[in-house]
TrEMBL record:
Keyword annotations from UniProtKB, A to Z: Isomerase, Magnesium, Metal-binding
EC number: 5.1.1.-
Active site: K147, K244
Group of enzyme by EC: isomerase
Chain sites annotated for binding Mg(2+): D172, E198, D222
Protein name listed in UniProt: Dipeptide epimerase
Needed co-factor(s): Mg(2+)
Superkingdom in the source lineage: Bacteria
Length: 330
């Protein structure tokens, strides 16, 4: 099989500041496997690097050279160790080839109804209250996710709520709070009508999550959710999990996590990194399976080179073409 890849710099529409740092650009590696496409998000705080992605792709090239021609046979040949983002990119490409061979989009092959995909939230990165209020108003989108954990979070939330009293609000601390901060702020988030809180604390202290749970605001785990085992282990401490292809290693592992969460009574938000319509389009095929979506990556990028996934306001318009249904712009 022919396997090629290229590194690409994503230019962000606005500085993207979260508890892990501030970005003006992000790096992606685009994969082409015999015409099947995939994307690896290079996210340093998830332990990813261009070198790690490239090393995984080099290892996979040899393993796929004499792989069986079936989707399952090829998936089984992907290396088990190494970059999850690179595995996700190759898995996207293999599913893309499978769907193209059957001349159908993945959501149809999975037996899903694209109309059941939930609306996506739109992320407001850390900024001054005035900046966030302006961006919230300008977006006009009905579901807003505010990044917190680095500044005067309460002032920022109050400013956004005042600017958009009609919006559904969510908050994501990316592990940037300590237990005392979380205890103080959760009642304020409840007062402001925040729907749920992602990753308030670093993932190391599950006992602290147990103390916060049941205080009137559902808690979701994000950063530590990479495998089915992680979903099982976190189920006693949170109300929901955030599933992302780049963390999970691809579409099939992400779907397994969603099904496990369902069995354990957890809600699921399907999320993304700052990724193009290629990776986010791949994830969107699973959106009808979940209650919440945070698939706004392409809305944060100025130079997305792909098309196929579309947005009607916050509504996800799933690709209609075969496979992923995502192609390079002409």
């Amino acid at each position: 099989m022919r396997l090629d890849w290229q590194t690409f710099t994503l230019e962000l529409a606005h500085p993207f500041r979260i508890a892990h740092g501030t970005s003006l650009t992000r790096t992606a590696v685009f994969v082409d496997l015999d015409g099947g496409l995939g994307e690896a998000a290079v996210v340093p705080y998830h332990g990813e690097s261009v070198e790690a992605v490239t090393a995984y792709l080099e290892a996979a090239r040899g393993r796929l050279a004499d792989a069986p021609s079936t989707l399952q046979g090829r998936l089984a040949r992907l290396p088990r160790e190494g970059s999850r983002a690179a595995r996700a990119a190759l898995e996207m490409a293999l599913f893309d080839l499978w769907g193209r061979a059957l001349d159908a989009p993945l959501w149809r092959l999975f037996g899903l109804d694209p109309q059941r995909a939930p609306p996506t939230s739109f992320t407001l990165a850390v900024g001054s209250p005035e900046e966030l209020a302006e961006l919230a108003q300008r977006s006009g989108l009905p579901v807003l996710k505010l990044k917190v954990g680095t500044g005067d979070d309460l002032a920022a939330l109050e400013a956004v709520r005042a600017a958009r009293p009609d919006a559904r609000l969510r908050a994501d601390a990316n592990g940037g709070w300590n237990l005392a901060q979380a205890r103080d702020l959760i009642p304020e988030l409840v007062r402001l009508g925040v729907e749920f809180l992602e990753q308030p604390l670093p993932p190391e202290d599950r006992a602290a999550y147990a103390e916060l749970r049941g205080r009137g605001l559902p808690l979701f785990a994000d950063e530590p959710i990479k495998t089915v085992r992680d979903v099982v282990e976190w189920a006693p401490y949170v109300d929901g999990v955030v599933v992302k292809l780049a963390k999970s290693g691809g579409i099939a592992p992400a779907r397994a996590q969603i099904e496990t969460a369902r069995a354990l009574g957890l809600e699921v938000m399907l999320g993304c990194m700052v990724e193009t319509r290629l990776a986010v389009g791949a994830a969107a095929h699973l959106a009808p399976l979940v209650e919440h979506a945070d698939l706004d990556g392409p809305l944060l990028i100025q130079n997305d080179p792909f098309q196929g996934l579309a947005y009607d306001g916050a509504r996800l318009v799933l690709p209609q073409g075969p496979g992923l249904g995502v192609r390079r712009r002409v």
